[in-house]
Amino acid sequence: MSVTAAAGQVIMHPVLSKSLKIWATTLGRDKTYRAIQYFARFYAYILLRRGDKDAAQRWNALKNHLGLGRKLMRLGKPLEHLQAALKASQSVALSQQSAERFTAVARQLCYAGYLTFDAIVWANSVKFISLIPTKAESALKISLRFWLVGIMVGQFNSLLKVGRLANEAKALRAPGEKSMGDRAES
Questions:
Q1: pLDDT exceeds cutoff 70 at 74
Q2: Which residues contact 115 (CB under 8 A, 6 or more apart)?
Q3: N or C: which end of the chain has fewer CB within 10 A?
Q4: Which pTM value belongs to this model?
Q5: CA dist list (Å): 9 to 18, 55, 128, 142
Q6: Cβ contacts of residue 32 below 8 Å, gap of 6+?
């Protein structure tokens, strides 16, 4: 087998082709960066436990820089969440469920707020903007509050949705038909 044929087999290997297809998307790169970042965190911990502080610092630096890089890829995400909030507010499917609509919109707005303030924190951390330490700390706290409220509102939205779907399933059952819970009791 010639060198070019071997190189062609390696370069055109299906695993490499699939990997390149995944890495061509922002989501694919983000997941890869996240996997490497978490591995670096784990490996730095192992190295610290073994007493190799120099190697652990290199892996910790890799973890930190990958985290900053991942934040760069999220700069346009607040706009996606604002669009999702607008779509949820205009949703015909949620027109009868005002609480479900409200929580869907609120969740998207909270995530947009979180990512906006997180971008400010990122820009300060890479020295693109210069915030005084108290302002940087304040932006971080606001970001984390948006994140927490977004998660809480999202959980409440899920509970509302589960309740609505259970009621719809109950209404679809034939009048004489027993539910699974009723069958188990008899």
A1: yes
A2: 74, 77, 78, 81
A3: C
A4: 0.71
A5: 14, 35, 44, 52
A6: 22, 23
